[in-house]
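Hi,

I'm pasting everything inline rather than attaching a file, because the server keeps stripping attachments. The sequence lines come first, and each chain or strand is labelled.
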Amino acid sequence: MPKKTTVPGSLKNVTCPETGKIIGFQFDVRLPRYRGNMVSLINGYYVNVDGVEYPQDKIRFILNGKAPRTFEELKSAVWEHWNYRDAATLLVLKDGGLEKGDHVVNATVSNFEQYGYMPGRDEKRVADGGEPIVANPVGVGQSAAQSFVLTIE
Amino acid sequence: MAIHRGVSSYSYQNLIFDNKMNHRDFIRTVREDLDTDGIELIDETFIDDYPFLSEEFEYDWKDTIARYNMKSVTMDIYLDVLQFRDHVMNHEEATERLKRDIIIASRLGFENVRCLAATPVDVIEAALPTAEKYNVRIGQEIHAPLPLVVNPDTVNRLHFTAPIDEVDRVIEMIERTGTKHAGLVPDMGLFQHSLTPIMFEFALRSGCPAESVAFLKEKKGTMPDADLKVIMSEKFGEETVAKMARLITTQGSAKPEELLKVCPYIVSIHGKFYEMVEDPTAPGGYYDPSTNYAEIFKYLKEGGFDGYIDSELEGQGYCNDLPDDQMQDEREQVRRQHEMFKALGAV
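And the predicted assembly:
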């Protein structure tokens, strides 16, 4: 079900404390469902800002007070829970960050929480990460993130 | 013997998502809004750091239940078989998860756990010693499009992995083992006969042409879903049909009288609904335009059901695109459903 999964007021540029340079931008996301799940099940994020897609290797995931992690690193978080009411932060690496003002942000999660066994698809998801991470076309009552305008003050 | 009323936390999912309802608010709301005591919990909604249930949450949950004189009826549990990512969880590992969930439910005072319809029956059977030790019943959810009765006319429309005769397999296991700690949790979406107004309104807002929505409204249920899909594709194009795919294929999979077959095995019931509508013939009364609850209650009584029916509101997904003040009022919807439950004879 579509929910407001990008958190208003959370978009900001990120400055490296050592070099003083802006290395990217970040914003907060919530799980789009009605329950939390294991962090290991987070396969990746489709991130599109102002029409520009950002590849998985440019995105870092921040949750539970831990240092930013790649999606590859999340695979081993098999006993760590993403609590339902917590927001995670997506850090997107982009030299210079974003300009001040409004930006249209879409962040759709690829989440391997599912309704029990799905023979065939399960094995594929283990073998190669499964399907490509793209924003799904939205059908009535189906889940996909909506785009929201977030502002860099 | 009586039909008791309860609520699943699923019903208040938007209030919870928006941090307007914590576990204490949930329990208090059921008491104060509905004057009843049944509580059903989606485990990973409120249990932080699952599966490592903290003593603080355990004590707080039980104290809140005690404060408002409530009852922890059923805890809804899940089965994420890709948790370990480097392999698909095998049935032995799935059993370990189920056993852990039973212990969590027991610590929180629940009488039952509800496992997914897609949980293999051998996993349930393997967890029975734990269920018996902790005196927690395992209820397998029976959800559309699973049928209650398989006959030569049964069409297999399953979109999740379960044998079409899942109900018979669970009953066979119960009879063979003689266990008192396994059963069924039927979801009343099994008996959905119609789409509801909010679904059509959502389809219109999603950009489906008015003619296509009117056609769906008129023809839904008059022919097999697959045929309707083909006809609608020809008339309105693939894009529109893709947007309405879920509406075209959403339907019940059982008849209320078939409840008589499963009544002796029911652990608790999911009172699935999408919206409650004011009954024009009875001021202050409400009815469910998608599901005939009067028939359901008739057969539950005839079958001697003694237990809880827990509200499970699922209309939010058809309203979440609206401004906050036009979204579904979850508390009001649940209140209306309980007015109906009471009118139909629930205590």
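Strands of chain A lie at 12-15, 22-29, 37-38, 42-49, 52-54, 59-62, 81-82, 88-93, 101-111, 148-152.

If the labels don't parse on your end, tell me and I'll reformat.
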